[in-house]
Fold:
Amino acid sequence: MASFAAAVFRGGLATAARRGVTTRQTLRTATTTPSTRLVRPARPQHRSVSKTAAVGVAAMATVAGVAAVQTGGLMSVATCAADMPANITLYQYQACPFCTKVRTFLDYCRVPYNVVEVDPLSKKEIKFSSDYKKVPIVVLGDEQLNDSTEIITRLAAHTSNVVSGTEEEATWRAWVDSHLVHLLPANIYRTPGEAIRSFDYLLENGNFTVTQRTLSRYVGAISMYLLCKLKLNKKYGITEPRQQLYDAVNEWTTHLGDRDFNGGGHPDLADLAVFGALRSVESLATFDDMVANTSVEPWFYRMKEAVGPSSRITAEAA
Structure:
């Protein structure tokens, strides 16, 4: 039960756990930076996106470029969409912060992509991946990419002005994976009631049967509640989930100071990583409490406007 539950939310937590944890800071007076660190597996046999979807890729990329030029802002968007590979399929859990990071990057770059929602119980949708059984997984034609940070780094190589390339950017991206994401399951599975509501959100997407939804809702929710309470919170030193989340978020906004974004005039990969992680809880009580008790709201909604609507083509059946 514990292994299944761990897989439901933490897609890449095993990878992230190897990265350092930073201290908290709550005063909005100085700029700080936390600790740092940023497979090409066998090619899976996987069908490519349909011809209709491929046409959509080209059309949406063209529209994105025109829109970016017309608005006069976020000029990185046109470059992203023009240079990014086509036929992108994302295998994910909807509420997984690692998956949301990848979606945020693709949405910001206006790159169309297909989504396959993975059944957290059977994982039948990713049986093509023989050695890697976590999410997110991105498939580019017949090439498989694993781990959210690796996926984004690889795709970002096709852009010219989303990556700032600074040590600061790399440091805060690592902070998201090593610190911020550990606080999210501790909060959304803080009580049995919150855990069930979180799984209701998790299961909104995907072609799951009634039996799959019911089993995942109750078994998954209670398993994650117990896993966080008895193991994960102790492992990551989480004793006051809400307050520690507030402290982490305020550490980020303190670092930003008066800047609109970490990237200056537009978001960089650090902005997208923090926003992507926090965006994963936007429909839950954790998010409402966070906004009410931190200074993150102005930056969060600037990011939401910058990222724009989803560029997802469709949710595919596996």
